[in-house]
Amino acid sequence: MRGWGFWLGLGFFALVCLGFMAGGLALWHTMQDQGKLPVESIEVKGEHPHTSAAQIRAALNQKPLGSFFTVDVNQVQQRLEALPWIYQAAVRKAWPRKLQLFLVEQHPVAVWNDKALLNDQGQVFKAAMGEAEQQLVHLYGDDDNAAEVLAGYQGLATLLEGSGYQLAAAWCSDRNSWDLQLKDGLKIVLGREDTLRRVQRFIDSFPFLKGEQRQPAYLDMRYDTGFAVGWQEEEKKEKP
After folding, report:
1. Which of 88, 105, 122 is the endpoint of a domain?
2. Residue pair 56/73 in contact by the 8 Å Cβ criterion
3. Which residue range(s) make up the domain with 100?
């Protein structure tokens, strides 16, 4: 038969367990209470010239963040990456009550179909365009093939720029047929086949046209050995 010492020890142990449980419950309530342990400061790192502090604040305030312990960093990340110019965001808690945001903005390389932008990964995104973005090359094509269009344009642009020609726009049809426009307005019709070889033929042949009194409006390179020239005066006469 157990003596009074055993029961006294058991009672003491039960009281200790109850104390731990009560303390844990109180701590849990404190962690859940935004008023007691709120996020007091937010630190933003990374260059974000197209994203204002007001936009970041609005994204964070879409829903209450909760307390420092309960704030969902993944949810905050999703809110930030939903902003038009934010390409990638990372969110981290910093003791005692700080939230650190690391932002990476989109790197636009082209205007896409006159209504969106194309980043350096070939991904289409919609964001407000300033003067600097409007000066980018204008590319046209199917959204599903944006990355392929960008890769094709880069190959053509590299070849042309090596000879001093700069592209202002490029069109790629769903049949992979290419049309180009230089910054001086000259249009080059390449078609679907041997586009790089046709560009090289343009580079080799175009200087011979500079002695002409008339100005070429376009060159059709879709021939095996030569090309056709459309003159500006002729184009004007054809227009109603």
Report:
1. 105
2. no
3. 41-105
Can you tell me the distance from the alpha carbon of 42 to that of 93, in angstroms, rounded to the nearest whole number? 10
| CB-based contacts of 186, cutoff 8 Å, min separation 6 | 216, 217, 218, 219
Structure tokens at 122: 């070939």
Q: What is the largest CA-CA distance in the chain?
A: 122
Same domain, yes or no: 233 and 189: yes
**Identity of the residue numbered 216:** P
Give the number of domains in the chain: 3
Same domain for 160 and 215, yes or no, is: yes
Give yes or no: residues 100 and 112 share one domain. no
Contact 117, 127 (CB under 8 A): yes
DSSP of 105-120: E--EEEEETTTEEEET
pLDDT in tens, the chain (240 residues): 555 565 555 555 555 555 555 444 444 444 444 455 788 889 999 999 999 999 999 999 998 888 888 889 999 999 999 999 999 999 999 888 889 999 999 999 999 999 999 999 999 999 999 999 999 999 999 999 999 999 999 999 999 999 999 999 999 998 999 999 999 999 999 999 999 999 999 999 998 887 777 889 999 999 988 899 998 875 554 443
The reply to whether 179 and 127 lie within a common domain is: yes
113 and 211 together in one domain: yes
Whole-angstrom distance, CA of residue 10 vs CA of residue 91: 47
Residues 13 and 76 in one domain: no
At 172, the amino acid letter reads C
